[in-house]
Amino acid sequence: MEIYLTIEELAVYLKITEQTIRRWILNREIPFHKIKSVIRFRLSEIEKWIDNSGINNSVVKGDVADGDLFCEETNAVEVLQELEPADGEGEK
Question: Tens digits of per-residue pLDDT, 39-92?
Fold first, then answer.
């Protein structure tokens, strides 16, 4: 099953600001999909984009939110688990 990320989730995954991602979208620098009026990112496409130096071509000094862009210990599953609400949270 394909994993789709929101702008917020992708910002956490890449450790950059949401503003940077929004700028990349406007400039068509990052692969994204518009589903109705909602923007989503396929994790597999983002990882290919990174592997093909997409992120190196787009990152400008000052765009990084905290620390390095990537951490070897961080993977998509860990990021998504951090973003998921705990049982009962966010449900009404």
Answer: 999 999 999 999 987 555 554 434 444 444 444 444 454 544 554 544 555 544
Complete DSSP assignment for 9-36: HHHHHHTB-HHHHHHHHHTT-S--EEET
72: in domain: yes
The pTM score is 0.59
Q: How far apart are CA 86 and CA 27, in angstroms?
A: 35
The pLDDT value recorded for residue 44 is 95
Q: Give the pair of three-digit tokens for residue 53.
A: 């130096």
Domain membership of residue 41 (yes or no) is yes
Q: Which residues contact 14 (CB under 8 A, 6 or more apart)?
A: 21, 46, 55, 69, 70
For residue 73, tell me if it sits in a domain: yes
Alpha-carbon Rg for the chain, nearest whole angstrom, is 14
